[in-house]
Amino acid sequence: MVRLRIDRRLRVRGQVASSTVLAEVFQEASRRIGEYEESSSGSFFLWLRQLTAQCLQSLHQRHLGEQTGQTGQELSLYRGAMPQVHSMSLAAQLMGDRAAHRAAARADMLLRLQDTLNGMDPMDREVLALCHFEELGEEEVAAVLGIDRDTATLRYVRALKRLKEILNGIPGFFDNTRKS
After folding, report:
1. DSSP conformation class of 129
2. How far is 27 from 30, CA to CA, in rounded Å?
3. What ranges do the domains of the chain cover?
Protein backbone atom coordinates (compact mmCIF):
# COMPACT_ATOMS: atom_id res chain seq x y z
CA MET A 1 0.00 0.00 0.00
CA VAL A 2 2.73 2.47 0.93
CA ARG A 3 4.76 1.82 -2.21
CA LEU A 4 1.65 2.13 -4.37
CA ARG A 5 0.28 5.31 -2.79
CA ILE A 6 3.38 7.33 -1.90
CA ASP A 7 3.77 10.29 -4.24
CA ARG A 8 6.50 9.51 -6.74
CA ARG A 9 7.94 13.02 -6.34
CA LEU A 10 8.92 12.06 -2.79
CA ARG A 11 10.44 8.74 -3.90
CA VAL A 12 12.41 10.33 -6.76
CA ARG A 13 13.83 13.02 -4.48
CA GLY A 14 14.64 10.43 -1.85
CA GLN A 15 12.74 12.44 0.76
CA VAL A 16 10.51 9.66 2.07
CA ALA A 17 11.10 5.92 2.09
CA SER A 18 8.51 3.24 2.81
CA SER A 19 10.33 2.43 6.04
CA THR A 20 9.87 6.05 7.19
CA VAL A 21 6.14 5.80 6.62
CA LEU A 22 5.89 2.46 8.41
CA ALA A 23 7.87 3.77 11.39
CA GLU A 24 5.48 6.71 11.65
CA VAL A 25 2.49 4.39 11.38
CA PHE A 26 3.88 2.19 14.15
CA GLN A 27 4.30 5.20 16.44
CA GLU A 28 0.81 6.48 15.64
CA ALA A 29 -0.77 3.05 16.11
CA SER A 30 0.99 2.63 19.45
CA ARG A 31 -0.28 6.02 20.56
CA ARG A 32 -3.86 5.48 19.33
CA ILE A 33 -4.46 1.77 19.95
CA GLY A 34 -6.89 2.70 22.73
CA GLU A 35 -9.16 4.34 20.16
CA TYR A 36 -9.44 1.07 18.27
CA GLU A 37 -9.99 -0.96 21.43
CA GLU A 38 -12.76 1.40 22.57
CA SER A 39 -14.58 1.36 19.27
CA SER A 40 -13.78 -2.28 18.41
CA SER A 41 -15.92 -1.80 15.34
CA GLY A 42 -14.44 -3.23 12.21
CA SER A 43 -11.28 -4.96 11.25
CA PHE A 44 -7.97 -4.16 12.95
CA PHE A 45 -6.32 -4.48 9.54
CA LEU A 46 -8.59 -1.83 8.02
CA TRP A 47 -8.06 0.46 11.03
CA LEU A 48 -4.29 0.10 10.63
CA ARG A 49 -4.61 0.67 6.89
CA GLN A 50 -6.55 3.87 7.55
CA LEU A 51 -3.81 5.05 9.95
CA THR A 52 -1.27 4.33 7.23
CA ALA A 53 -3.29 6.39 4.77
CA GLN A 54 -3.47 9.27 7.24
CA CYS A 55 0.29 9.14 7.81
CA LEU A 56 0.91 9.12 4.05
CA GLN A 57 -1.39 12.08 3.59
CA SER A 58 0.39 13.94 6.39
CA LEU A 59 3.79 13.23 4.83
CA HIS A 60 2.53 14.40 1.46
CA GLN A 61 1.28 17.64 3.01
CA ARG A 62 4.53 18.19 4.93
CA HIS A 63 6.80 17.62 1.95
CA LEU A 64 4.67 18.82 -0.95
CA GLY A 65 2.36 21.35 0.69
CA GLU A 66 0.03 22.90 -1.85
CA GLN A 67 1.47 20.69 -4.61
CA THR A 68 -0.31 17.65 -3.16
CA GLY A 69 -2.78 16.30 -5.68
CA GLN A 70 -1.57 18.54 -8.51
CA THR A 71 -0.63 15.79 -10.93
CA GLY A 72 -2.65 16.56 -14.02
CA GLN A 73 -5.27 14.02 -14.98
CA GLU A 74 -4.99 11.86 -11.90
CA LEU A 75 -8.05 12.03 -9.68
CA SER A 76 -8.58 11.30 -6.03
CA LEU A 77 -11.53 9.14 -5.03
CA TYR A 78 -11.24 10.06 -1.39
CA ARG A 79 -12.08 13.10 0.61
CA GLY A 80 -9.79 13.21 3.57
CA ALA A 81 -6.88 11.05 4.53
CA MET A 82 -6.52 8.50 1.73
CA PRO A 83 -3.83 9.27 -0.85
CA GLN A 84 -4.86 8.52 -4.39
CA VAL A 85 -3.52 5.78 -6.60
CA HIS A 86 -1.60 7.51 -9.35
CA SER A 87 -1.76 5.97 -12.78
CA MET A 88 2.05 6.06 -12.90
CA SER A 89 2.30 3.94 -9.74
CA LEU A 90 -0.35 1.55 -10.99
CA ALA A 91 1.36 1.28 -14.40
CA ALA A 92 4.72 0.56 -12.75
CA GLN A 93 3.14 -2.14 -10.58
CA LEU A 94 1.49 -3.73 -13.62
CA MET A 95 4.77 -3.70 -15.55
CA GLY A 96 6.76 -5.09 -12.62
CA ASP A 97 10.40 -5.77 -13.47
CA ARG A 98 9.56 -6.92 -16.97
CA ALA A 99 11.81 -5.65 -19.73
CA ALA A 100 14.20 -4.19 -17.15
CA HIS A 101 17.11 -4.93 -19.46
CA ARG A 102 15.43 -2.90 -22.18
CA ALA A 103 14.99 0.41 -20.38
CA ALA A 104 13.89 2.45 -23.40
CA ALA A 105 11.24 -0.07 -24.43
CA ARG A 106 10.06 -0.31 -20.84
CA ALA A 107 9.85 3.48 -20.48
CA ASP A 108 7.84 3.77 -23.70
CA MET A 109 5.49 0.97 -22.63
CA LEU A 110 5.14 2.51 -19.17
CA LEU A 111 4.11 5.86 -20.68
CA ARG A 112 1.56 4.19 -22.95
CA LEU A 113 0.16 2.19 -20.07
CA GLN A 114 -0.02 5.27 -17.85
CA ASP A 115 -1.88 7.23 -20.53
CA THR A 116 -4.41 4.47 -21.02
CA LEU A 117 -4.87 3.99 -17.26
CA ASN A 118 -5.59 7.72 -16.99
CA GLY A 119 -8.46 7.02 -19.37
CA MET A 120 -9.97 4.44 -17.03
CA ASP A 121 -12.66 5.31 -14.54
CA PRO A 122 -10.88 6.31 -11.29
CA MET A 123 -13.04 3.89 -9.28
CA ASP A 124 -11.99 1.03 -11.59
CA ARG A 125 -8.32 1.91 -11.04
CA GLU A 126 -8.89 2.04 -7.30
CA VAL A 127 -10.67 -1.34 -7.19
CA LEU A 128 -7.82 -2.94 -9.15
CA ALA A 129 -5.23 -1.40 -6.84
CA LEU A 130 -7.08 -2.54 -3.72
CA CYS A 131 -7.57 -6.10 -4.97
CA HIS A 132 -4.30 -6.80 -6.73
CA PHE A 133 -1.65 -4.65 -5.10
CA GLU A 134 -3.01 -4.19 -1.60
CA GLU A 135 -4.49 -7.72 -1.71
CA LEU A 136 -7.74 -6.80 0.01
CA GLY A 137 -10.67 -9.21 -0.08
CA GLU A 138 -14.16 -8.34 -1.35
CA GLU A 139 -15.46 -7.42 2.11
CA GLU A 140 -12.45 -5.20 2.79
CA VAL A 141 -12.71 -3.48 -0.59
CA ALA A 142 -16.38 -2.82 0.06
CA ALA A 143 -15.59 -1.39 3.50
CA VAL A 144 -12.78 0.84 2.20
CA LEU A 145 -14.93 2.21 -0.63
CA GLY A 146 -18.10 2.46 1.44
CA ILE A 147 -20.13 0.23 -0.88
CA ASP A 148 -21.78 -3.16 -0.46
CA ARG A 149 -19.96 -6.39 -1.29
CA ASP A 150 -21.97 -7.18 -4.42
CA THR A 151 -21.26 -3.74 -5.85
CA ALA A 152 -17.55 -4.14 -5.06
CA THR A 153 -17.51 -7.51 -6.83
CA LEU A 154 -19.28 -6.11 -9.90
CA ARG A 155 -16.91 -3.14 -10.04
CA TYR A 156 -13.93 -5.48 -9.81
CA VAL A 157 -15.15 -7.71 -12.65
CA ARG A 158 -15.92 -4.64 -14.76
CA ALA A 159 -12.51 -3.12 -14.00
CA LEU A 160 -10.70 -6.34 -14.98
CA LYS A 161 -12.63 -6.52 -18.25
CA ARG A 162 -11.85 -2.86 -19.00
CA LEU A 163 -8.17 -3.32 -18.12
CA LYS A 164 -7.92 -6.30 -20.47
CA GLU A 165 -9.47 -4.22 -23.26
CA ILE A 166 -7.01 -1.41 -22.56
CA LEU A 167 -3.99 -3.70 -22.47
CA ASN A 168 -5.07 -5.39 -25.70
CA GLY A 169 -5.19 -1.92 -27.25
CA ILE A 170 -1.53 -1.22 -26.46
CA PRO A 171 0.48 -2.57 -29.40
CA GLY A 172 2.99 -5.15 -28.22
CA PHE A 173 2.04 -5.05 -24.54
CA PHE A 174 1.39 -8.76 -24.17
CA ASP A 175 4.23 -9.67 -26.54
CA ASN A 176 6.76 -7.70 -24.46
CA THR A 177 5.50 -8.92 -21.10
CA ARG A 178 5.48 -12.60 -22.06
CA LYS A 179 9.04 -12.58 -23.42
CA SER A 180 10.55 -10.91 -20.34
Report:
1. I
2. 5
3. 1-73, 85-180
End-to-end alpha carbon distance in the chain: 25
90-105 core/surface letters (b: 16 or more CB in 10 A; e: else): bbbebbeebbeeeeee
Q: What is the CATH architecture of 85-180?
A: Orthogonal Bundle (1.10)
Closest C-alpha among 17, 14, 89, 91 to residue 56: 17
> CA 111, CA 92: separation in Å to the nearest integer?
10
Contact criterion met (CB below 8 Å) for 125 and 90: yes
What is the per-residue DSSP string for 7-31?
-HHHHHHTS--HHHHHHHHHHHHHH
- Whole-number Å distance between alpha carbons of 116 and 107: 14
Contact 153, 138 (CB under 8 A): yes
Per-residue pLDDT of the chain (180 residues; tens, 9 = 90+): 888 888 877 776 677 788 888 999 999 999 999 988 888 778 899 999 989 989 888 888 888 875 555 443 343 333 344 555 666 666 766 666 554 445 666 777 778 788 878 888 888 889 999 998 899 999 999 999 999 999 999 999 999 898 888 888 777 777 655 544
